[in-house]
Each structure stands twice: as C-alpha cells, then as structure tokens.
Amino acid sequence: MRYQRMLVPALALVLVMVPAISARAQGEEVPRGPTFAARALQALIDGIQFGVIIAITSVGLSLIFGTIHLINFAHGEFVTIGATFALFLNVSAAGPGWHLIPAAIAAVAFGALLGGAVERGIWRPLRARGTGLINMFIVTIGLSLLLRHVVLVLYGTRPASYAQYDIQSAIDLGPAGITPRDLTVTLLAVLVLLAVAALLQKTRIGTAVRAVSANRDLAEASGIDVQRVVLFVWMLAGGLAALGGVFFGLVEIVTWDMGFKLLLLMFAGVILGGLGSAYGAMVGSLVIGVVAQMSTLWFPVDLQYAWALLVLIVVLLVRPQGILGRAERVG
C-alpha cells in the first residue's frame, strides 16, 4: 500500500513531463507564458485606461467640493444611473433599442439634468436654510442609499453588457495588446478631460468656477452669480459621472452597485490630487488607476484597491494637501 501511494504522484509527474520532453526531442518549442516585461506593459496600459475612467467620474466630485465644500457621497450613484440608463436605451426589451452611441449621449444629458435637479431641489434649499456641512453630508448618504435601491428595483441584480462592442480581438502592440473598444474609450476619456481643462481655463463660466472655488465671498462681491455657477458645476458633474459610468460599464460590466464600488477610488483620486482641484483629481485618479493595476504583478487581484489606497496614505504623509493641492494655514 505504501508503494502504491508513492507510485501515484510519480506517474502524474511523468505524464506532465513527457509532452515537454517529446517536444524538445522533436525540435519543437515548448510554449511559455508572457515575460514580466510584457505583463508589466499590459498592466500599465490597463492602469492608464482605468485611471482616466476614474478621472472622468471624480472631476465633478472635486469641483462640487471646491465650490460648496460638500462631500457628495451620492456621486457614485450618478455613475450607476448613467450606465444603467444607457443600458435601458440600448438593450432593454422595454427600451427603444438605440445604438450605444446615441444611448450614451442621452445618458450624459440625463445625468446632467439629474445633477441640476438635485442641486435645485435639495442642496440649494438646504443651503438657504443654513444647514451645516455635516448635516448635508448625512443627507448625501441617505440620497445615495435611496438612488442605489431605486436602481436595484428598476434594474435588478443581474449583470449585463451593452449590445455593441462586447467581444473584440485585441490589437497587437508588441508584447501587449488592447481591444479597439478599450483604446477608443481611453482616447475619448483623455479628450473629455482635455475639454474640461480647456473649459475651465478658456471660457467665462470656467473662470467663474475657478473664482468661486478660490474664494466664494470675493467672487460673489465681484458680481459673479454664484448660484448659477454652482448649478453649472452640478450639471457638469452629473454629465461626467454618467459618461464615466458608460465607459466603465463598456470595458467591464454594468451592475446595480458599480458606482458605489468605484466611489472609494474616486475619493482616493480626489484626495490624492488635492481637494477642490479639478486637475489634481485628474492626476490623482491616474495614479490610483496605474498603481491598482500594476500591483497585480506581485500581489493578488483582490488586493489591488488596497495598494492604491496605501499609496494615498504614503503621499499624504509627505504632502498632506495632495499632489496639486494648496497648503493652508490652520488658525
């Protein structure tokens, strides 16, 4: 019996080794896995794509904090609503069956209108009543729970994909690869971020947004309509969040809680880049995305978000105001 127990693993080892030995004897090359350099390049590409998607969703979150100093915990639900609304228009039996591109445009418009409606219907009346920021933050948590479960009731728990651009062959980039869908999403995300930067720098409303973020009282004293600027920021944040949700659902999958899962990384990108800075949110989100994907080279995938948050802690220990944030004197 003892010899039989020893014989079983020995036979298994022979069965594994025989094909490789036979292939080498016949001059055939034994297939090998990708090298570390190839895996690192692939992780970098995936990290950039992930980072720019986080950046699109987190820019609005940062602008909201910059203008009214509110931490919007419900921002993740705007991401989910954008993705699920486009899914309804695209594949739902009760929907019109639109192609994904017009469905995505409609989802962005819906997200912008939702952001404006939430500002006019909830946050402006609360500010007019002098509600404190802590109380308003609690309201954002309640709004997040409400919106998330409304999506759950209407959408259900089953993950789904869009009808177009689902299965594609990767474009060979040497040791790495990327599908045309993922490449298009990455490039479009970068173009959108550049457009937001140009809007903030080159337009009157962008100048007003930066003025309100820098000093709300001084901006109001100089004749800027602060309420109009805040409404614009909420609509911009809602539209960008919806677009980010469509992009994230396109490269991953659409689920009822996808925005909530992404919310922690959005906060990490905003804090890492510097609270209230749109450009800081872009840079911080890109760093978070790259670190999260690169960490999978050495550690399990389940820990990729943990390592991204560890980088956040390390950077804040060295630079508490964030990468592009401004240091402020307390007291």
From TrEMBL:
Protein localization: Cell membrane
UniProt name for this protein: Branched-chain amino acid ABC transporter permease
A Pfam match: BPD_transp_2
PANTHER family membership: BRANCHED-CHAIN AMINO ACID TRANSPORT SYSTEM PERMEASE PROTEIN LIVH (PTHR11795), HIGH-AFFINITY BRANCHED-CHAIN AMINO ACID TRANSPORT SYSTEM PERMEASE PROTEIN LIVH (PTHR11795:SF371)
Membrane keyword on record: yes
Provenance organism: Streptomyces shaanxiensis
Membrane topology: Multi-pass membrane protein
Signal peptide boundaries: 1-25
